[in-house]
Amino acid sequence: MGRPGLIGMAARTAVVAGTATAVSGNVQRRQAQREQDKYEQQMYEEQQQQAQMQAAAQQAAAQQAAAAPAAAPAAAPADDMMAKLQQLATLHSQGILSDEEFSAAKAKLLA
């Protein structure tokens, strides 16, 4: 009775192989579940970041919309006057306007 018979050896091999297969399958399932959980966590974090960026963009747009109407009317007359002054200076530097004409036009514009 020292050695098991052929059937005993086959049975032992089958038990060992079955156990190894079961353990291997369980390990693979756990690894796959961990990878799935990690992927879902990354997707959740990306969605949160996108939501934060959209909220910040909407807030910035709202602030710009609130500030733009107040700033636009004040800037337009100053820009128009600067453009006219530059145009007068260009005409004076080209010799089209004399010193007296330039001074009179500038005084009229600034008045």
UniProtKB/TrEMBL annotation:
**Region (Disordered) spans which residues?**
25-46
One Pfam entry for this protein is SHOCT
* Ranges of residues in domain SHOCT: 84-110
> What is the protein name for this chain?
Biotin carboxyl carrier protein
